[in-house]
Amino acid sequence: MFFTSNVLSMVGRQFTRKSFIHTVSMIRQPLPAMISSSSKYLIQKQQQQQQQRSFVSNVSLNKREQELTDFLASEIDLERESQKKPLPKMSDWTITNTGSDIVLFKKFNNEEITIKANVCYSVDAANPDADNGQMVCEVIDGNLYDLLMNVLEGRGIDQQFAKKLIEYSTIYEHNLYVAKYLQQYGDFERFGQVDYRPLGSSTATSTSIMIGTNVFHIDPTFSPITSIDVLNSTIRQFFSRSRHWSDDKIYLRDLREALKDKFLSYGLKTAFHVFKTEYTQDKMKRQTATNIIAILPGKYRGTPKDEIYLIGAHYDTVRRSPGIDDNGSGSAAVLEMARLLTRHKCYFNKTIIFTLFDLEEEYLKGSKYFVQQYLIPTEIRKNQAKFNGAYIMDMLLAYNTTESSQSLRDFWPTLPAFVEEIQDAGSRGNFMTAWSRRNIDQDLFFFLEKNWKNKQIYPLKLMDPPLPTLSHEVSKNWSKYSKYGTFARSDHASFWYPIERDTTFRSILLSDLGPWRKDMSFHYHRYGDDERWLRYENLRFMKNTIDSLLATIIDIGDGYCFAQKI
Fold first, then answer.
1. Residue 125's pLDDT is what?
2. How many domains does the chain have?
3. String of b and e for 360-395 (b: at least 16 CB within 10 Å)?
C-alpha cells in the first residue's frame, strides 16, 4: 500500500419473457382474492375420466387471475404433449431417464464418461436467453453447451453432440412447476387439486459430468473454497522477499516469469504489460516495469457484448521489505482465485481479468499505466468491451481480536460514523474493509456484502468517503477534498481517477487496515513484514476474504462452476 497523504493532490494535478412476466409483476402484490379459497377459482373437469389435466374456472376471474390460469393451462398442455415423445437416440451412447434426469453413458479410449443432466436447470429472471426465467424448473441452460465443449473436448464430444444434448430439454420437457413467486403465499395446495404440485424449493438443480473417477458437477450455488495450505505455500514461494525494482533485478525478472508461468498453467491467456515510467521515488529517471495480465474469457469475449471485471493486486514492495502482508497477501489471493476458478471449470458470461501490478509503491504507476495503455485502448476502444469494475486487494493478513488493537486516528475527520461503529465494538482489528466512493461504486460493494462469509467472525466494514466522480472535480475543489487523500493510496484509485480526466471506472479496495492495526503498524513497510504473519489465524482471516470474493465474482460475473471431486 502506497503511503502518502498527497495522492489526491497528485491525482488532481498530474493525472490530469411475455405475458407471464406481467402476471408475475402483479403476483408480487397482495393476492387476498386468489389465495382465500382453493376451490373457488380452479375446478377439475372430468380429469380422471380423460386422464388429462387442465385449468378451468366457472367463476369470473379478474385480469391477472385469468392470465395466470391461461398460462398454467398452456404449460400443462405442453407438458402432456412432450411426455408422449420418446427420447431421441445418440450413436454410441446409452441413454436412460429417471424422473427429470437424463443420463448418458459411453466408453471412449478405455475411459468411462457419464453425463447426468436435469431439465430443471436454470432459474434466472434477468437472463434474456432463458425460456422463462420465472419457472422453478427450466430447460437446460444454453451455457451447458459451452461447458460440455470445454470439459469434454478431445473425448469424442463434438459440436453436433453438444447441440443435441441441449435439444433434449425441448424434446423431453419433464414436469414444469410454477412456484418461485407464489411460494411466499403458501398457496401450493390450490394447485394440488389438479396434481400440479410445485417443488419444495425454488433452487435450481444441476448437471454433472463424470470422466473416469473425476466428477464435474454444475451447481448454481457452488463457489470454490480456498486452501490455506496453498496460500501459505504460494506466499512463501513467490512473495517472501523484497520485490522492489532496485533491490535484486535478476530475482525480480525470474519472479515475473514464474508468475506468468503460473497463470499459463491454469490455462489462462497471459501476457506481460511492459511500460516505462516518467520517474520513480528513488531516482529521477525512467524505469522499465512489468504488469502481469491473465484473462479468463467470458461467453461474449471478442464481441461488443463483452463485459469485464478485474481482480487485481500489486506484487512490488518498498525497498528491503519482504512484503508478506504488503502485498504478498493480495498477490497470492489473485493467484488462488485464478487457480480455483480454472480448476473448477468455472464458466462466465462476463470476462474476468486477473492482474498483478508493478510499482504500486511508486505513486501507483503500474495500475495507472495499465488503465492508460491497456484497459482503455485495448479492451474498451479496440475490443469495444464494457468495463464493469475492479476488485483490488492490498494487505489481507493483519488480524487482531484484542480490544483497542485498531487505531482510528486518521479516519475521525472523514468518516466519524465508521469510527464510532468500530469503537462501539471495542476497537478490535478483526474486520476487513472495503473502500468505495459513496454512491458511485456501490454496486460492487452490494455484491460483495451479499456474498460475504462468516460476517459475525470476520465483519466487512464499508469505508465510503464522499469523493467526486472525476479527477478534475478534485483539482477544482482541492480545499474540500484534500482531507480524503488517504483513500487514494492504492491501485483502486487508478480506476477512480485515470489519467484521462473525463473518465472514471468503478473500483473497490479490500484492505485489512494494516498500517493502523496493532502489531502490523510497527512493521509496515519494514523488515518485520515477514513470515510471522503466516500464522493460522491470519491465514484463516485472509481465506475468508478470498472465499467471499470468489462467491462475489461468480455472482456478479454471471457464472457457475463444476464442483469437481477428485
1. 43
2. 3
3. bbbbbbbbbbbbbebbbeebbeebebebbbbbbbbb
106-123 pLDDT, tens digit per residue, is 776 677 777 665 544 333
Lowest mean pLDDT across 90-99, 136-145, 197-206, 299-308: 197-206
CA 265 to chain centroid, in Å, comes to 22
Q: Does the structure show a pLDDT above 80 at 101?
A: no
Has residue 87 been placed in a domain?
A: no
Contact 471, 414 (CB under 8 A): no
Count Cβ atoms below 10 Å from residue 545 Cβ, excluding itself: 25
Q: What are phi and psi of 67, to 5 degrees?
A: -60, -45
Domain residues for 102? 94-192+199-219
pTM over 0.90, yes/no: no
Decide: 212 and 114 in contact? Cβ < 8 Å: no
CA–CA distance, 531 with 236 (Å, rounded to integer): 8
Q: Are strands 288-296 and 351-357 parallel, antiparallel or unpaired?
A: antiparallel
Contact assessment for residue 327 and residue 312, using Cβ atoms and an 8 Å cutoff: no
Burial class of residue 48 (count of CB atoms within 10 Å of its CB; 0-12, 13-18, 19+):
exposed
pLDDT of residue 488: 94
